[in-house]
Design goal:
This protein has helices spanning about 40-60, 80-95, 100-120, 130-145, 160-180, 210-215, 220-230, 240-245, 275-280, 300-315, 325-335, 340-345, 355-370, 375; strands at about 1-5, 10-20, 25-35, 250, 255-260, 270-275. It is mostly helical and about 375 residues long.
Length: about 375
């Protein structure tokens, strides 16, 4: 009997079988051990372990898990492409998902359709989705598929993009199982070596010295500089900065703060205190403006801001690839470097603390480099 740790703290139990000739296979028990915070949790885990031990004993005795009869025949005959179109329509009609998430899903669905055309099965039925098809699709996006955003310069997908497509496909297949149009998720049958693994994330950020040089750099787009610097001291995304209204700025005992009932990407409420540095880059509020007036009413588009920032970076002698999202990474790393903890830095609005931990790794690497400078002294 084995267990696998999950990000939420639970541990799933499964059986690992060894047969003659060295063959090995696994069986998920659909049983989970939860973190023991009190006596009731301990009793729940005790009961779960008893069930797991019973199932293990049955397998040792040769008792196989009963399978539902005619499981495949119960699945409705539906073309995979049609079901994906309906699934995407449901996502777009729901207010639980952001436009960016829906666009990512649409891109994944288009790539899946491209693969179905590649294997000459554009109307493939849901019931035919299996481990072999899934392995073929993952090989296809790694070896054959090319990003045609620039038709004259087609590019292979990056490891991060391939991982995102795999995650989206797993989500699509999981919803199909819940909807009853797919008997099982073939992703569960893949070995770890068959799937794409997570790749280390390189997050570019500016140091204090670089940020000061950028603030003094000449630019033909002063609004870009103002909005970028403001986001460097608040951690806002470009989409949240553009949507920021004067009514979102509240006064509390500790000073001014930004209150977002719902962030553009995560749809989660977030409160961000405004520091003195952030206030330096906040526009002066007009006397006659209303609460629903946007703070940065002439904010540049993301593509325009990114072009202007590249010119600013060259003038400031910054040898980094700067984009507007770099302001968010800068806020996170500077906050942690100044002594803030992970939960404080979660002002970024991450729904998962593991997203914030990535910045802690970056800061620790910098601290390690600084400490190693002592070697030269001795």
């Amino acid at each position: 009997m084995r267990s696998r740790n999950h990000p939420n703290g639970n541990r799933s139990l499964y059986l690992e079988f060894y047969e003659k000739g060295g063959k090995r296979h696994y069986e998920s028990l659909n049983l989970f051990l939860i973190p023991e915070e009190d006596e009731n949790d301990r009793r729940v885990n005790e009961a779960t372990l008893k069930k797991a031990v019973k199932l293990k004993s049955e397998r040792v005795l040769g008792v196989k898990r009963p399978k539902p009869k005619n499981e495949e025949s119960k699945v409705p005959r539906r073309a995979f492409c049609d079901w994906m179109d309906d699934y995407l329509s449901c996502l777009q009609a729901s207010d639980q998902y952001s436009m960016a998430y829906c666009n990512h899903m649409r891109s994944t669905i288009n790539i899946i359709k491209a693969y179905l055309a590649y294997i000459k099965r554009p109307r493939m039925l849901m019931s035919k989705l299996d481990k072999v098809w899934l392995k073929g699709f993952l090989i296809y996006i790694k070896v054959e598929y090319r990003n045609m955003k620039s038709p004259n310069h087609p590019k292979p997908l990056s490891p991060k993009t391939m991982m995102l497509i795999q995650t989206n496909l797993n989500t699509i297949l999981g919803h199909a199982v819940k909807a009853g149009v797919l008997a099982r998720n073939p992703m569960d049958a893949l070995e770890t070596c068959d799937k794409f693994g997570k790749t280390p994330s390189e997050r570019e950020f500016l140091t204090v010295a670089e940020l000061n040089r950028l603030a003094k750099a000449e630019t033909g787009s002063p609004t870009t500089k103002q909005t970028f610097m403001f986001c460097c001291f608040t951690g806002l995304r470009h989409s949240d900065m553009v949507a920021l209204k004067w009514g979102d700025i509240k006064t509390c005992g500790a000073g001014l703060m930004l209150h977002f009932p719902s962030m553009q990407k995560t749809k989660q409420p977030v409160i961000v205190p405004l520091s003195e540095k952030a206030l330096e880059w906040l526009p002066e509020r007009p006397a006659d403006c209303k609460v629903d007036t946007k703070v940065f009413d002439n904010a540049p588009t993301l593509s325009s801001a990114n072009r202007a920032l590249k010119h600013m970076a060259r003038r400031a002698e910054i040898r980094k690839t700067i984009s507007f999202h770099c302001s968010r990474h800068t806020f996170a790393t500077l906050t942690l470097t100044a002594g803030g903890d992970l939960y404080t830095t979660s002002l970024l609005g991450h729904t998962n603390i593991h997203s914030t931990e990535i910045y802690a790794d970056v800061v620790m690497e910098r601290r390690t480099q600084a400490v190693n400078l002592l070697n030269a002294i001795f």
